[in-house]
Specification:
There is one protein chain. It is built from two helices and four strands; from the N terminus they run H-E-E-E-E-H. The protein has one domain. Helices cover about 30% and strands about 30% of the residues. It is elongated. It starts with 7 loop residues before the first helix and ends with a helix. A hairpin with a 2-residue loop joins strand 3 and strand 4. By secondary structure, it is of the alpha+beta class.
Length: about 100
């Protein structure tokens, strides 16, 4: 997937992702094939062997807290640096809104 950076909204989203302000995804998919992690405990978790993705959205608050973006092409940040940048940016935004 790629961003159409000539679209102002896509460019804004891309820039916010690079800054760390948007760092989560919502992913919608159909499960076509799966198997249990442990055949003796079939409700203990599943391995998805084949899925069909039909939607991926950038969101501010994900349903699954582990669905965060760790790397944007051409831009890589450690988790600690990313969280610090987020906190600083949120403080900056709040001070501008006050």
């Amino acid at each position: 997937a790629a961003f159409n950076l000539s679209d102002p909204e896509a460019k804004k989203t891309y820039d916010l992702m690079k800054m760390g302000a948007l760092d989560s995804l919502s992913i919608g998919f159909f499960i076509n094939d799966y198997e249990p992690v442990d055949a003796k405990q079939p409700y203990g978790g599943w391995i998805f062997k084949e899925v069909e993705i039909f939607e991926i959205s950038v969101v501010t608050v994900p349903a699954n807290p582990q669905s965060t973006i760790d790397n944007i092409k051409g831009f890589d940040m450690s988790v600690v640096d990313k969280r610090i940048a987020q906190a600083n940016m949120k403080q900056d935004i709040m001070s501008k809104l006050a």
